[in-house]
Amino acid sequence: MKKNIFPILLCLLIGFFMGNYIIKQYKSKTNMVSLTGDNLYFLSIGSYKTKDEMKNKLSNVSYYIYRKEDNIYYSYIAITKDLENLKKLKDYYKEKGYVISEKKIFVSNIAFLTVLEQYDMLLKSNNNIEAIESQVLSKYEETNNED
What we know:
With 147 residues, the chain is an alpha+beta fold. It folds into two domains: 1-33; 38-144, Alpha-Beta Plaits (2-Layer Sandwich). The chain is 54% helix and 22% strand.
C-alpha cells in the first residue's frame, strides 16, 4: 500500500498542473474574437446634434440613413465597398452640390455584404446612382435594424 501512495500522489500532482495549464491556454484563446465582415465606405452628408436639426437640414435630400454615435447623428447618403464606385459616387454628389466626406465603417452583417456586392456591380455599369443607392441604404436599414 505504501508503494502505491507515491505514484498516485505524483499522478494527481501532474494532472493538476497539466489541467491548470490547459485551462489557462483555453482562456487566453477565447479572449480573441474574430469577426467576419468588411470595412465599407459610407458617404456622409453631415453630423447633427439633434434628430430634428438633421431632418430640417436634409429635407431636400431624397433618401439617407443615419447612425447615432456619442449623441451625434451622422447622416449617410451612400454605401459602397468598391473604390471605383466610391469615386463615382463622390463626383456625382459633389456635382449636385452636397458637401461629402467618407467614413470607413466595419460591417459584419453577411446578408447585407452579399447584397452590397450585387449593387456595387450594378453601380459600375449603370448611372442611375440615386435609385441604386436608395436601395442599398434601404437594405442596410432593413438588415441592421438601427435607430
